[in-house]
Amino acid sequence: MTDQGIFNGVDVYSTIQPILSAIGLAHDLGNPPFGHQGEIAIGQWFRRKETWIFTNIGPDANSDPLPDPVPEYLWPEFTKFDGNPQSLRLITKLQTSHGRVGLDLSAATLAASLKYPVDARNYDSTKPAIKKFGYFESERVLVNWIREQTGLSEGQRHPLTWIMEACDDIAYSVLDVDDLLKKDVISPDDVMVFLEHDAQLADNDTVKRLSEKFEAVGKEARRVEILRDIKIGYTRAYLIEALIVEASRKFVEKSKAILALEHECPLMEGSRLCNALKRIARQYAFSHRDVLETEAIGAAAVDSLMTDFWSAIHMREKPEEMLSARMGARARYVFSMISPNYLEEASQSVDGPSGTMRYRELRLLTDMVSGMTDTFALKMWRNLKAIPRVDRT
Question: Residues 6, 159: contact at Cβ < 8 Å?
């Protein structure tokens, strides 16, 4: 793909804008409950069972070997589970539709949504654009089709992906701070003090403008809580505007390399303002006791749910048939909770490593657990804890 074939003659409003809107909405859909902590919990569950779950029937390494084990190069899909490839799977396969086409998005849209355009064998943690894998083996045929249609190759990002990534960085850096303000963990004036005392932002125009606006707001004879809400609104608006302008400028500056598919560094990498906001979130949000408690409870819930659903998926009368009758009352009950569209996808036998029974079992497991919201996961976890594990293996 060359720069002449990407944007030349393409209308921004009828083509580019809809693609950006679609990939912005689709991004992070595959994240499991409790976000990054949920990803860690899923990966840790698989790593604890790594000696047998990919190679043996189970529940330990001394059990009979599988006739078709999961190839070792695919183990990271589970031991390093990530929401990005799950997002692609969700919008292309797990969303029910006529003809089994998921959301039936265009090849360009799907290519642009692929934040990390490599598989589990080719990711490189030292390179930002491929520091993680972006698609599972189960979607390889689909990714091959996307690349046939767009001309992209393994490791090459679609140019619009850089914008989506910048929007993600902007949203999280600002909205994490906004969340702290809304929960009254810190005040708008605390944020201003933090920014004004950051040596790297000494000459930042946005910080100066925001400080002036705070001073003007403070002179109004209104209730304190009203003034606080006004300052929160200005904080959010000014910071988002400044980061959008910065990202846009960098995209234009780097457009030649981006269109030539040679660019490597995220647009917001090195942004002093963006980094300052992330430091605020790390200091006041991610280390806050309430947040840590929620993460600890969430990790326990995800781990327990993984065990429950694995038992329900694996404990069946006919190992060669995914939809065979379950063995045991608890397994039957838990299995009944799995979404029909997930079961339909898992029961489809395909060629290659992703078509083996164990791979499909494990993919069904991650589909189900990662598809839950925080609230749903906690509710299901608490409900299942009340049921005795008399038939658990």
Answer: yes
The residue length of the chain stands at 393
- Alpha helices (H) along 10-158: 17-26, 35-48, 76-79, 83-89, 107-113, 140-150
Which residues fall within 8 angstroms of residue 114, CB to CB, at 6 or more apart?
A: 88, 134, 135, 143, 146, 157, 158, 161
Specify whether 185 is located in the same domain as 283.
yes
Q: Per-residue b/e over 272-286, b at no fewer than 16 CB within 10 Å?
A: bbbbbbbebbeebbe
Q: What is the pLDDT of residues 36-92, one digit of tens each?
A: 999 999 999 999 999 999 999 989 999 999 999 999 999 999 999 999 999 999 999
Domain of residue 15, residue span = 3-31+73-158
Rg (CA), the chain: 24
Q: What is the pLDDT of residues 24-49, one digit of tens each?
A: 999 999 999 999 999 999 999 999 99
Strand partners, 326: 316
Looking at the fold, whether 100 and 165 belong to one and the same domain comes out as no
* Final residue before a domain boundary, out of 98, 125, 158: 158
Instruction: State whether 78 and 190 are in the same domain.
Output: no
Within this chain, do residues 165 and 242 fall inside the same structural domain, yes or no? yes
